[in-house]
Amino acid sequence: MLDDNLRSAADSFAAQYEALRRLEGWTEPSGREDPDGGQPRLWKGRLRSVSEAASMLRHEWTSGSQPLVADIGSGGGWAARFLQPAEVLACDLLDVSPGSATVTVRADMRRLPIRSATLDAVLYAASLHYAPVEIAVSEAARILRMRGLMVAVDSPIYQDRQSQAQAVARTAAYYSGVGYAELTDHYHPIGSMALRQALEECGFAIERFEIGSKRHLFGRFQRRQPTSFVVARRIR
Known about the structure:
By secondary structure, the chain is α/β, with parallel strands linked by helices. It contains five helices and eleven strands, in the order H-H-E-E-E-E-H-E-E-H-E-H-E-E-E-E.
């Protein structure tokens, strides 16, 4: 579902991103990003966040319904198995092979091939920061039905601009150090005020807004593994 003029850039990103995730230990032997094959110490927090998000969403769904949910920036599509009984559309710039999701689509999260006002929820599992926040939130608002939920977990969200700038520099150093400097162009650490403003301007009511971080070490570089949890409901 990618435009031809975007495919080359997407292929380059995907190759570097997949190689990096393999190096870090997030993937199974085939290269698919999945907690069943990655290192448990890396996946523990991510699984907890997505499990909590899925539990919250299930409480929204009426008995017998089959909601439609987009897992945006889905990686290997693993989160879909937590989202039962929903139909899950897994979207990523990576060429996601069929897995637990109902449908997998190779797509740019800035221009999703989804009709307006069709989804009951969107999930960003450590992926909201792969597009400028204003664009990501606007696109989420476009594809959600009224009262639909946007849930974003484990993306880097910072209280002030200095912390944002430090995150950019730290991550650029890390990507350069492991040989994938071009990935820096895809990294957009989120300012908390900018996210709040984007949500409000796009017609969301914020229901949960928690940000924090814990530190992991990768080689000689330090990166913060975020633990943010944001829930917003489209109300207009």
